Amino acid sequence: MGIRSDLDSNFDYEIVDEFLDHYSIMVDCMEVMIIDLSKPNMFEQSINELFRVFHNIKSASGFLKIEPMTKLSTFVEDALEQVRTNHK
Description:
- The chain is mainly alpha-helical.
- It contains 4 helices and no strands.
């Protein structure tokens, strides 16, 4: 079974569908945030927004027990936190 099938069999359809909708929106927004990292006046806002996106993905994927996505989002969240700390 694939991840979607696992999710559908273990969780309410509406929860899975809401996760996928929010994930899609967050991914679409990330490109602009990443590009804005190169703009000095947008860096802090963009790094904070990216951190928040990955924190939300980590939380939701943890709840849904999507281990690979949880590990990846934890890794990125930790890296973004280091950048935020070192940039100040």
